[in-house]
Design a protein that fits this description.
Blueprint (H helix, E strand, L loop, with lengths): L4 H17 L2 H10 L11 H17 L4 E5 L9 E6 L7 E7 L20 E3 L2 E3 L3 H22 L5 E7 L9 H7 L1 H4 L3 E4 L3 E2 L6 E3 L1 E2 L1 E10 L5 E2 H4 L6 H10 L20 H7 L24 H6 L3 E9 L8 E2 L2 E10 L8 H11 L5 E4 L12 E2 L5 H14 L4 E3 L8 H8 L3 E3 L3 E2 L10 E3 H20 L6
Parallel strand pairs: 3-6, 3-7, 7-19, 8-20, 9-18
Antiparallel strand pairs: 1-2, 2-6, 4-5, 5-21, 10-17, 11-15, 11-16, 12-14, 13-15
Helix pairs in contact: 1-4, 1-14, 2-4, 4-14, 5-13, 12-14
Length: about 475
């Protein structure tokens, strides 16, 4: 007896939930987390290849995909895998994405009983490096695809899936690989999962990302420190000079003072999309400083529609063992996050002009050390795009709630590569939350969100095979 479409969709959702409840999903994730894929550690390059060749590639092959691994054009950088299952050239093609690399493990900084390379469950939390970012999220997509194939022996659309191993290192080489192989990566839409939800309770779409630019501010005045009793008051202190230089960039409450760093006015479509956004950090998240940043913007607009400047690290003298000496040098590692409509090519020239105009010629602007550079550009798909509306409707059908649509995330990722080079709408469905300790010790996912993600993603892929955007 053939089930009707509504019943079959429900069966696929049941399959996805059972995959999570029976432990199959977590067993696969546990195996992947155990591979220490630290892309910022050159010694882990063999593990990056192992993740793709021994874990991801064979998993796609079991689902009838063909796959290949591209070596990175930059020496020492991680490889990229492309898996594809082409069922009919006349069907729409969806490109998926995940990154198998993780930030450094910082093994000695995890809470007692926890560690980066082994999943430990405590209630609804599953701890381990890469759980939130991004192994759990691309594993959701892979297991959901498997559920759909198990239900009807076909997807009903063409599927391509890219897994890179250098996102935490700035996705170096990915742009060149995609640009030089456009035909291989060509698709009608890009659908992936990364980053946190706006709210723990509700699913949301993210249609792009902010860009990121990292740089160092350095004030180096002389060689060696000099006794603060004999030389204090006679020698300029680079720490004080640099602190005042940084203070000139924003107000005391973080409002950017360099006009050239500000974006174009926020489009009405973006403001409208953000009206219903209620940002929630979840348990353990810090309390928001409501007075920080641009005073005329709402909290969501500050994160998702505006530019921000951050000092990520500041060093002068020897912080671990201070001595009574005027230090010779001060360094600050800084970052700008910026949205579409910003002239990022003028960020550093404008900063140079600003520092000179305020008397800080002694402060130089330098590229950050290798491994600390974030070179992502901003990109954004219009909230009214047919694919965006279609995906939002599919999720709403599964959850029974209106899907929150973000024009772009507050963070940065390689989204622009697919948006700009392939010309496809980019749609992200994040399945983490802002309190997940991403990039920090004690990284974790919430089982409740992950379980719901399995249902959302399996139903989405089912719907793609039944009635994709534009079907009549």
């Amino acid at each position: 007896m053939t089930m009707d479409k509504a019943e079959t969709r429900e069966k696929v959702i049941e399959c996805a939930l059972a995959d999570y409840d029976d432990g199959h999903y977590m067993a696969e994730l546990r195996r992947r987390v155990a591979i220490p894929t630290e892309s910022q550690n050159p010694e882990r390059l063999p593990d990056l290849y192992r993740y793709l060749n021994e874990e991801i590639g064979p998993a796609f092959e079991d689902m009838g995909y063909e796959w290949r691994v591209f070596d990175n054009p930059f020496e020492g950088q991680g490889p990229v895998l492309l898996a594809e299952r082409i069922e009919d050239p006349g069907l729409p093609t969806v490109l998926g994405y995940g990154h198998g690399d993780v930030i450094r493990g910082y093994e000695d900084q995890w809470r007692e009983g926890l560690g980066p390379w082994n999943i430990v469950q405590e209630g609804d939390r599953f701890y381990g490096r890469g759980t939130a970012d991004n192994k759990a999220q691309h594993t959701v997509h892979m297991r959901a695809l498997k559920c759909v194939l198990g239900a009807r022996d076909r997807l009903g659309f063409n599927s391509k899936f890219l897994v890179e191993t250098g996102e935490e290192n700035g996705s170096k080489g990915l742009e060149e690989i995609v640009r030089d192989n456009r035909d291989l990566f060509a698709a009608d839409a890009f659908i992936a999962s990364d980053g946190p939800r706006v709210s723990v309770e509700r699913a949301n779409l993210t249609l792009g990302n902010r860009g990121a630019m990292n740089f160092d501010l350095v004030c180096e005045l002389r060689e060696g420190g000099h006794h603060s009793g004999n030389w204090g008051g006679l020698l300029a202190n680079p720490g004080i000079i640099l602190a005042h230089a940084i203070a000139s960039i924003t107000t005391a409450k973080g409002r950017i003072q360099i006009r050239e760093w500000l974006p174009e006015p926020i489009p009405n479509s973006v403001r409208d999309a953000l009206k219903d956004v209620a940002r929630q950090g979840g348990p353990g998240a810090p309390e928001m400083d409501l007075a920080w940043g641009e005073p005329d913007l709402t909290q969501p607009e500050k994160v998702y529609a505006w530019n921000t400047f951050e000092v990520l690290a500041f060093r002068t003298g020897n912080p671990d063992n201070p001595v009574n000496a005027v230090p010779p040098k001060a360094t600050a590692h800084c970052q700008i996050r910026f949205v579409v409509g910003s002239d990022s090519d003028d960020f550093l020239p404008a900063l140079r002009r600003h520092l000179d105009a305020h008397g800080f010629q002694q402060v130089s602007i330098q590229p950050p050390p290798a491994g600390n550079a974030a070179g992502f550009k901003p990109a954004r798909t219009d909230p009214d795009h047919p694919w965006a509306r279609w995906v939002a409707a599919s999720i709403e059908r599964t959850t029974g709630e209106k899907t929150v649509v973000l024009p772009n995330s507050g963070g940065s990722i390689c989204n622009y590569i697919f948006h700009d080079h392939l010309g496809v709408p980019t749609i992200w469905i994040p399945h983490s939350y802002t309190g997940c300790c991403q990039h920090a010790p004690n990284e974790h996912i919430l089982g409740s969100i992950t379980r719901e993600a399995m249902a959302i993603t399996a139903a989405l892929y089912w719907d793609l095979g039944e009635s994709p955007p534009g079907a009549h």
